[in-house]
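Input.
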Amino acid sequence: MPELPEVETVARDLRRHLLPEGGGPGPEIVGARVAWTRTLRDGDVARFVAGVAGRRIVGIGRRGKQLVADLAGGAFLTVHLKMTGQLFVVPASVPADPYERLALALADGREIRFRDIRKFGRVGLYGADDHPFDEIGPEPLEPAFTLRAFRVRLRGRRARLKPLLVDQAFLA
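Output.
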């Protein structure tokens, strides 16, 4: 499974490929193709396609080990790469890969393709009122997460350190 630094690297690469350097919204999503329904968190292909079509990508980040693509209108996509998930931004003319599970068609003639050999990765579409990250602990790379904050979180815990550190409810 990609760890947090690898997911952060993917987020930065996607920002570089999809968002204008000086700021502003990125390309509009004009359609979607879902090759494997279980890639979607809720399994509803029609809802997913209708929910992303016509929305611009306005931001790309990360929360824990999930990529987050902010869309116009307050919606957002989450992508959990799991063990073998990969994201590519390619011209739409590039032939589909046999392990492609989902593709987002962009108005500029490119596609964002989610490739996942083992089929463990998941993509979710959420509205502004949804809170899929409520169960995830604080971000370790945030300036507010200091040594003191870490000690406060550790206080009173009896768990072994390594399992505690990989528990996303304790630390994103």
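The chain is about 20% helix and 30% strand.
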